[in-house]
Amino acid sequence: MAAAVLLAVLCLFPILHTAVPAGDLPPLVTRPGTVREVSPDALDLNTATLEQLQALPAIGPVRARNILDYRAQNGPFQSPEELAAVEDIGPGTLEKVRALICVTQQEEQP
Question: Which end of the chain is more exposed for a tag (fewer CB within 10 A), N or C?
Answer without folding.
Answer: C
